[in-house]
Design brief:
The protein is α+β, with helices and mostly antiparallel strands. It has helices spanning about 1-15, 20-30, 40-50, 55-60, 60-65, 70-90, 100-115, 150-160, 180-195, 220-225, and strands spanning about 120-125, 130-140, 165-170, 200-205, 210-215.
Length: about 240
């Protein structure tokens, strides 16, 4: 019965977290440090003692331990969570990469790929203002085929719900020209983006000689339509 209750609470959390009350959120959090006890009354007692969630997570560890059911391990866990929340609040959101223009993207990709000798592919999900929301990197990906499984890309797009998607990969050979396989990858990923309401912003090829952009070369639209022809360019 106890495990069944925890599973039901987790299901509620994953299904509709906005409908979970403060004491229920705290109850679920306590699952991870109190394994063999009903954490609901502990959560209530903590909120009674410290008034609200902010009070709980900013309370001195020694004072947390005065609440019944809160041992040293639980006190340490709550203090750690509180420190993380505080750090998140104080963090500078501006430190996240943001692609306002191609120069921003080119510099970021150059830093990521410069000096890497093997094949690598990266997926970037960006927000409406160009801020990087999620990055997926696949090392030693064969550029002759899509290096990230289509099912995984669909999963990421469904979870992140980005406004835009950028794909970057390298050609260790130094040849900047997009291949037929590159065009096919753009076409397939473009279909996934359209399915999830995201815009495919660009596909970029990094080489030691320079960076090629489908968008800047005017090739993106035809590649997304599946009509691109073999050519190449330098950006």
């Amino acid at each position: 019965m106890h495990e069944g209750h925890r599973e039901r609470m987790r299901d509620r959390l994953f299904t509709d977290p906005d409908q979970i009350s403060d004491h229920e959120l705290l109850e679920i959090l306590l699952y991870y440090c109190i394994s063999r006890k009903n954490t609901n009354p502990v959560a209530h007692d903590l909120l009674d003692a410290f008034c609200d969630l902010q009070g709980v997570f900013s309370a001195p560890p020694a004072l947390l331990s005065t609440v019944e059911g809160v041992g040293a391990g639980t006190s340490e866990f709550l203090t750690l969570v509180g420190a993380l929340v505080s750090r998140i609040r104080l963090s500078d959101a501006g430190r996240r990469p943001r692609f306002v223009n191609f120069s921003d993207m080119k510099n970021f990709i150059g830093e990521r790929f410069r000096g890497f000798p093997d094949e690598m592919l990266e997926l970037y999900c960006v927000g409406e203002d160009g801020t990087l929301l999620y990055l997926r990197s696949v090392k030693n990906a064969h550029h002759s085929r899509v290096g990230i499984d289509a099912r995984f890309i669909s999963y990421v797009l469904a979870q992140i719900k980005p406004c835009g998607v950028i794909i970057a990969h390298n050609h260790p050979s130094g040849d900047m020209r997009p291949s037929a396989a590159d065009d096919a990858a753009v076409y397939e990923i473009g279909k996934l983006c359209a399915l999830h309401g995201a815009k495919f912003n660009d596909s970029v090829i990094y080489t030691r000689k320079g960076i090629y952009s489908y968008f800047c070369d005017g090739r993106l639209e035809s590649a997304l339509a599946g009509t691109a022809e073999e050519n190449g360019g330098t950006v």
